[in-house]
Amino acid sequence: MSTMREKKNLEGKVALVTGGSRGIGRAIALRLAEEGADVAINYQASKEHAEEVSDAINSMGRRSCIVQANVNDFEQVIKMRDEVVKELGKIDILVNNAGITRDKSFVKMTPEMWSEVISVNLDGAFYCSKAVIDGMIERKYGRIVNISSVIGRMGNFGQANYSASKAGLIGLTKTLAKEFASKGITVNVVAPGFVGTEMVKAIPKDILDKIISQIPLGRLGEPSEVAGAVAYLVSEDGEYITGQIIDVNGGYYI
Ligand code: NAP
Fold it and tell me: pTM of this prediction?
């Protein structure tokens, strides 16, 4: 994790990180708080983990709240938005990070496995963006970062659903970037490669070893390295960047 800086460039800003309880989302939430933002932590099931992240943010002197919602349920997302606005006043930064995998070769992939992944990873980002956009338009300021994946860029055996959802996020991002640039809202993608979280721990060791051997930088990424790219995009330094993809993958996809 990077060290505390003198200048808090996100001071006064409020961020909502979906799936902020664990893994990459947790690292993003902590990093945005470190940069000075107040941060709402969305989770689906891991309340204790969400509380731990929220407590850590409070101990940095930032405001924080936890908010349970399945991002693939629009009513729950609207309720989440309302709770965050009530607790923290507004939402300036949305990080659509919540995501799942349900891997199977295409022949064995069921329609349910397809729909489940598309609904969390892609519908979820649509619903959350929809829920926050009016407030951002009103304040003429917004930052949306969608967490895609190298798999959305390359495809991968056994991940038709996941790859389609993550490629879909790229199309969504580019369109929203064009629709909302004139409103002071930037929309970008961070596309991680393989990062050492629960999601990647689910990959069998022999397959993971093979993947690592194909990563030019020779190792998995750290959640904090993905968080760094998000922090850059939502910072003052990133304000002229919209509709772009930042790949954080150790050179796995060049
Ligand atoms: P993770 O460790 O499995 O954590 C997933 C997070 O998403 C958890 O906080 C989980 O909440 C939340 N979540 C899952 N379903 C949800 C739902 N329906 N509504 C709300 N929250 C939900 O995953 P990760 O590795 O940190 O991945 C985070 C994001 O990065 C995902 O979009 C993933 O596709 C992407 N990504 C990851 C990698 C990687 O190598 N790890 C690579 C590329 C992209 P609970 O804790 O409550 O379950």
Answer: 0.97
